[in-house]
Specification:
Helix 2 packs across helix 3. By secondary structure, the chain is an alpha+beta fold.
Length: 560
């Protein structure tokens, strides 16, 4: 009797599922297909939402999405999925997957036919405050002009020419005279800075052109804040549809265009003999090297991501560290191919110390960073005041622009730090819900972090600007950690004495003395591409299977 009643309930559920309104895909959703050359044991399929977000779907869930057309009932969807997958999928299972998986991900429209409210992933160390500057149609026109540079003979010629130029410049001619010219003519630094900015923009054009050459459709270009630096970005999310070679071409397109810019600069030098141009070419090489580092969301990170076929490496830091504990396993690690798993583990073991050291050094030096910005702000304020008083509007406006520019990295640091801290606290709060001991640990840990920050940042004589001659080396940053016990590791009393008190430029009344030029970080491209993806997993288990869908952040190359 009990079995009969259970069968009746199941039959009623099947009838309800079969009689429900046929589901339909959300507006603008594109089902792309299998993620090619992936590092997963079972390759996921991908779909693209109208907002450009790439969604990773396991095979069964993708089959369900593929069967949704606004006409098929849940019973028809279940039958189609059963035939295609070889698994028994009941109508109520199909409805469950649509309601609990595909609709929350924004792949299927709501029950009323309305497109769901979309929420994009907010991954670790991603570009913030994005502002689109170049619309998609203009990007298409720009990439049309640069398209021939990706023809194989052109690439071979460019690489050969760059090697020949580098050998001549570094082994025979040198850059000393160019550097000397800049020192004796500081105004030329503005020329160098302008050319570096132009090369950074061209870097993004390289990503967009490479994506289009491979068959993807590049999106907008724009600017934002990456960690603390202003940065350009290009939306190349559509590159996810390409194979590994196409994605790697997109990743490398930016530094390839840096190389082309260096060659163009070399050509102008050969025509003019203007030595500072060789410094510009050398700077492009430094930008290329920095971009290849895989520790931030620079090109090197995306290259590693596409080589391994894992588009969400930062999302795997926690699971990878957890899996290193004996007896602990995590599905985010187990789902990867063996060689990919080893590569990801090696990357995490290198990345974590680098990130801890980098952000630890930033935390320690916050007092001096803010003091330097404040001192420079006052210097430029005095210049602006003098210039406007003397009727020199252009000079005063330039000083005003420099004052506004000073606020960008400081604002970026404050916002990025507060967002990261807030996310960490909220994550810990959710993790400890319903567990008093965990909650106590989260509250105690947060209080301890705030106490340490207060100890390090409370004014104690260390809020002094960076002085001429200070180098800011890695070994110097490492030595600062030894001074944490003083409460002012950024500038210990002994170090302040060595620096003659570390005076403020503004206090010395040197309003006509400019601050030292700062180096801009190499271009980091925010590209919506397969290499830059963060995932949010949602897992549901039905009577037939366990499905996990992953939201992949729109790939974008970012160039600080």
């Amino acid at each position: 009797m009990q079995q009969t009643r259970q069968e009746e309930r199941q039959e009623q559920q099947r009838g309800a599922a079969g009689d429900g309104k046929p589901p339909q895909l959300a507006e603008g959703v594109e089902l792309i297909g299998e993620y090619e050359d992936s590092g997963y044991k079972e390759a996921p399929s991908i779909a693209r939402r109208s907002d450009g977000q790439i969604i990773q779907l396991p095979a069964l869930l993708y089959l369900v999405a593929e069967s949704v057309d606004g006409r098929r009932t849940y019973a028809e969807i279940a039958a189609r999925v059963t035939e295609a997958s070889g698994r028994g999928v009941a109508p109520e299972d199909a409805q469950f997957l649509v309601d609990e998986k595909l609709r929350p991900l924004g792949v299927v429209a709501g029950a009323d036919g309305e497109s769901p409210q979309l929420r994009k992933a907010d991954p670790l160390l991603a570009l913030k405050f994005r502002v689109a500057l170049v619309p998609e149609r203009v990007v298409h026109a720009i990439t049309s002009a640069f398209y021939p540079f990706f023809f194989p003979p052109v690439i071979a010629a460019a690489v050969g020419a760059l090697i020949a130029f580098d050998v001549w410049m570094l082994a025979f001619h040198g850059v000393a005279q160019g550097a000397r010219s800049l020192v004796y003519n500081p105004v030329l630094l503005f020329m160098v800075l302008g050319l570096v900015v132009a090369a950074t923009a061209l870097h993004e054009v390289g990503h967009a052109t490479a994506a289009r050459y491979g068959g993807a459709k590049p999106g907008v270009m724009g600017a934002g804040i990456y960690v603390v630096w202003p940065a350009f970005y290009t939306d190349v999310t559509d590159a996810y549809r390409l194979n590994r070679l196409g994605r790697l071409r997109t990743d490398l397109g930016g530094i390839y265009f840096n190389a082309l810019f260096a060659l163009g600069t070399a050509g102008v030098y050969l025509l003019t003999g203007f030595e500072p141009l060789l410094v510009v070419a050398l700077v492009q090489h430094f930008q290329i090297l920095q971009q290849l580092l895989p520790f931030l969301r620079l090109d090197g990170y995306y290259i590693l991501s596409d080589l391994t076929g894992v588009p969400d490496l930062f999302a795997r830091i926690g699971p990878t560290l957890k899996s290193l504990v004996p007896g602990k396993k995590d599905e985010k690690v187990d789902e990867l191919k063996r060689w990919v798993r080893f590569a990801v583990v090696a990357w995490v073991l290198l990345l974590v110390p680098v990130l801890l050291f980098t952000f630890g050094a930033i935390v320690v030096n916050v007092p001096r960073i803010f003091a330097t910005a404040y001192d420079s702000f006052l210097v430029h304020y005095d210049k602006a005041h003098e210039a406007f008083g003397a009727g020199q509007t252009g000079k005063g406006a330039l000083a005003g622009v420099q004052m506004a520019t000073l606020a960008l990295p400081v604002l970026g640091m404050v916002v990025s730090s507060s967002r990261a801290g807030g996310r960490a606290f909220l994550g810990g709060w959710r993790w400890s819900e319903g567990a008093p001991m965990r909650r106590l640990g989260v509250v105690s840990g947060t209080a301890m972090v705030l106490a340490v920050l207060g100890f390090l940042w409370f004014p104690n004589g260390e809020y002094r600007p960076i002085q001429p001659g200070e180098r800011g080396t890695v070994q110097g940053a490492a030595a600062q950690f030894g001074g944490i016990g003083t409460g002012r590791p950024a500038l210990t009393p002994a170090r302040q004495q060595e620096l003659g008190g570390a005076p403020l430029v503004h206090q010395e009344g040197s309003t006509d003395q400019g601050t030292e030029p700062t180096s801009t970080s190499p271009t980091e491209t925010t590209t919506t591409q397969p290499s830059n993806t963060t995932t949010e997993s949602t897992t549901s288990t039905t009577t037939t299977t366990t499905t996990t869908a992953t939201t992949t952040e729109s790939g974008s190359t970012t160039t600080p």
